[in-house]
Design goal:
- With 254 residues, the protein is α/β, with parallel strands linked by helices.
- It is built from 5 helices and 10 strands; from the N terminus they run βββαβββαββαβααβ.
- It has a 5-stranded parallel sheet, sandwiched between helices. A 3-stranded antiparallel sheet has the order 1-2-3, with no helix packed on it.
- The longest helix is centred in the last third of the chain and has 25 residues.
Length: 254
């Protein structure tokens, strides 16, 4: 498939190469983004390779049609925020927001399952980590119902929705105050990282569904998230941002 820059790719396409210029590109998969150097092919060569590709994938194992959370195994690592969030064609998939992050972006068009993944990820972390270890701030900017089932988890300290602009602004701005508070706690303990504070602070995971909608409604609040992105690792503040596409919503500084 060939798409223009910034266009969504068809559902089911799991590998995308963004070509910036000859010999410079980014390879995007479900698990990583890496810079690559391209060797250019003629159109005839590319067509020949594409026609040959299905011959190598006919016997590949497929994804399961459905997996219940209770069917997934427990995470083997107990440090960080490791959680098993799903299953690939061959094994359970575990992510550690601390080691693999400290932040994450979940992208996909409407109907591809972004909200479902966010809810699954939050639930998986909460299932294996106590409220003493992790808190959640959940922000839903596509109608206010995405996180309703999670509202009463003891880990959830706030749910911010787009149903009231003033409430949303207060909720996001309070994150700046939390940054400063956590900096003070680390100073008191004479450490530079939450991992060395011996349980003085739970980690805080900020989850936003439809991040682009939040920025469209309150564009100046983007600075708060940029600040968390820059300083959050040491302070134990992590972001999971859901958006239809990263380009445009996720600015360079963030």
């Amino acid at each position: 498939w060939l798409a223009r820059a910034g266009e969504d790719v068809p559902e089911g396409i799991t590998t995308v190469i963004d070509c910036t210029e000859p010999r410079r590109a980014h390879l995007r998969t479900a698990t990583e983004i890496r810079q690559v150097s391209l060797e250019c092919l003629s159109r005839e060569q590319a067509v020949a390779l594409a026609r040959a590709a299905p011959e190598h994938t006919e016997d590949a194992p497929g994804l399961p049609a459905e997996v219940r959370a209770s069917d997934l195994g427990a995470p083997t690592a107990r440090h960080g925020l490791t959680a098993v969030i799903g299953r690939s064609a061959s094994a359970d998939v575990a992510l550690d927001l601390v080691a693999d992050g400290p932040h994450a972006i979940v992208t996909g068009r409407t109907g591809t399952g972004k909200s479902e993944l966010l809810v699954t990820w939050i639930s998986a972390i909460a299932a294996t980590h106590s409220p003493d270890d992790v808190h959640f701030v959940l922000a839903d900017f596509k109608g206010g119902t995405a996180f309703e089932a999670l509202r009463h988890l003891p880990h959830v300290v706030a749910v911010v929705t787009d149903l009231g602009d003033a409430e949303a602004r207060r909720g996001v701005e309070s994150l700046s105050a939390e940054l400063r508070r956590r900096e003070g706690v680390l100073v008191e303990h004479r450490v530079s990282d939450i991992a060395a504070a011996q349980g003085a602070l739970p980690r805080l995971v900020i989850v936003v569904d439809e991040f682009a909608a939040l920025l469209n409604a309150q564009p100046d609040l983007g600075a708060v998230f940029t600040d968390i992105a820059a300083r959050g690792r040491a302070l134990g503040m992590h972001m999971i941002l859901g958006t239809q596409r990263a380009s445009g919503a996720i600015r360079d500084a963030l």
